[in-house]
Sequence to fold (343 residues):
Amino acid sequence: MEHQERVFSGVQPTGNLHLGNYLGAITKFVALQQSHQCLYCVVDMHAITVWQDPAILSHNIREVTAAFIASGIDPKKQIIFNQSQVSGHAELAWVFNCVARMGWLNRMTQFKEKAGKHRENASVGLYAYPNLMAADILLYHATHVPVGEDQKQHLELARDIAQKFNVDFAEAIKAAGHHDGIFFPQPEPLITGPATRVMSLRDGSKKMSKSDPSDMSRITMTDDAETIVKKIRKAKTDPDALPSELDGLKDRAEAGNLVGIFAALNGTSKEDVLKEFGGKQFSEFKPALAELAVEKVSPIGDEMRRLLDDPAELDAILKNGATRARAIADPIMAETKKIIGFI
Ligand code: AMP
Ligand code: TRP
Fold:
């Protein structure tokens, strides 16, 4: 097999790491390390597409690193590193800036949301961000990318970029010995389970996000038990009892969200949760959810704090990860340059 299966994913060090990041992405990272070679990247270059205070950025890079390890990713077995330490990300992103078309990027909904009314004042980096993300993945010829639902469109773009590069440079790729004409494999998104889009606890129509001004909208990985309980108690719901069937969650975004969170934390399905809690009121469901969330999240928060007490050790892990990442990336980048015709 020319292309070995390989997992890549990234998380931005922009603070307020939350339950959506954990359930939508990090728990998948942990599971995949049993079966695959994995690279998990703290994407600091993506973070600076919007302003980051330098001292806080350094802390946040270590915090995401600590979250990966505290959640159960083994940095000896898998590669944990930060993007800016491997220069190939920036190099390949430039190549992809010249492969991707303006029209493709103009369709990216996340840019439209993030830039909002201030489009003229958004950084060029924020606009080109999906090309850097494609470079992250393809620099390692990664085949599988676990992400939350919100990254689906960016993954489709990465596939289009891989495809266009393979077609544009078909002859050179074959001349380099890739007889199937495939230099960059098509990365497959892995978006599965009951919590691929965790919603805000205050508004079931908005996704849980790091940048929501209300801290009550999200459970962060470093919230203490008391805070987790309080946030779930105050989470917005409707006055009805929980339904017994999935159909009954239609048009009940907040109820559906809490059921999804319960299912994901418990490693079961929404159907299973409704089997247990159908017909029960939120006054009964919320304390059960709070207990489960504390049981799952608190130990991770505690371990993150312990790891963050020794920043030098975290920095050493990132440095070691970057060295191992470079060992995969450098030959692929060198071959890319050759295919393009660079000397
Ligand atoms: P980010 O914080 O944007 O770097 O996201 C890191 C990972 O968490 C990505 O795979 C996202 O798709 C995922 N993610 C972010 N927010 C949510 C959410 N509310 N629900 C599920 N997954 C999410
Ligand atoms: N853009 C992703 C996010 O905001 C983070 C990311 C950067 C990523 N590079 C990646 C995710 C590569 C998967 C693969 O969530």
Summary: The pocket of adenosine monophosphate (ligand 1) is lined by residues 11-12, 20-21, 24-25, 147-148, 150-151, 196-198, 207-208, 210 (CB under 6 Å). The domain at 215-306 is CATH 1.10.240.10 (Tyrosyl-Transfer RNA Synthetase). The CA atoms of residues 260 and 269 lie 8 Å apart.
